[in-house]
Amino acid sequence: MLAALGVMVLLAVAIGLVLGWSAIRFKVEGNPLADKIDAILPQTQCGQCGFPGCRPYAEAIAKGEADINQCPPGGEEGVKKLAELLGVEPKPLDEAHGTPKPKSVAFIDENSCIGCTLCIQACPVDAISGAAKQMHTIVASECTGCELCLPPCPVDCITMVPIAEDLPHWKWKHPVVMMKQVDGGRG
Predict the structure, then answer these.
(1) Quick check: helix, strand or coil at residue 167?
(2) Which of 79, 132, 72, 136 is closest to 104 using CA atoms?
(3) CA nearest neighbour of 131 among 114, 152, 117
(4) What is the H or E stretch that residue 129 is in?
(5) Spatial contact of 54 and 45, defined as CB atoms under 8 Å apart
């Protein structure tokens, strides 16, 4: 019994050494400036800035290949924070990339959903759950409000629901849950 325990400990140490070595060997060094820029960006992964997500946009800003005013979800506040970080003057938000909107989360009318999976394929953060020819639903805690699921939906069963950003509504609630709370569960 003691010998088996000793062998297991040695095996665990050996595995740890191998995994530790591979983690060091294959570690990818990040760009510290891009990391700071990325931390300021809203992480919607919407692509409105012209890049496929927040990290590629952050890297382009860090390299001087993109302006700091291309992120509508970050709004003027985001532009100011980026300008402060980079030590440059803030610029007005470039409306060619869109305009700021209230923070929102997608909502699928499950009675209208045909289960085509086009919204699942479009979602950059895997916030939609469902299967082919079955209704889909949004995992609200994962949804960034990017709106990329709206255009591919052939039956227009997805809408965006604004999120209140005050203290009583700090956590998003599903509209059906809110209706049940309001009408005592009758609806």
Answers:
(1) helix
(2) 72
(3) 117
(4) strand 128-129
(5) yes
- Taking CB atoms within 8 Å and a gap of at least 24, the contacts of 89-94 are 91/67, 93/69, 94/67, 94/69, 94/70
Domains of the chain: 32-97 (1.10.15.40), 104-182 (3.30.70.20)
Q: What is the pTM of this model?
A: 0.69
Q: What is the pLDDT of residues 103-160, one digit of tens each?
A: 899 999 999 999 999 999 999 999 999 999 998 999 999 999 999 999 999 999 999 9
> Which residues make up each annotated binding site for [4Fe-4S] cluster?
46, 49, 54, 71, 113, 116, 119, 123, 143, 146, 149, 153
Which backbone phi and psi does 71 adopt, to 5 degrees? -115, 95
User: Residues within the annotated binding site?
Assistant: 46, 49, 54, 71, 113, 116, 119, 123, 143, 146, 149, 153
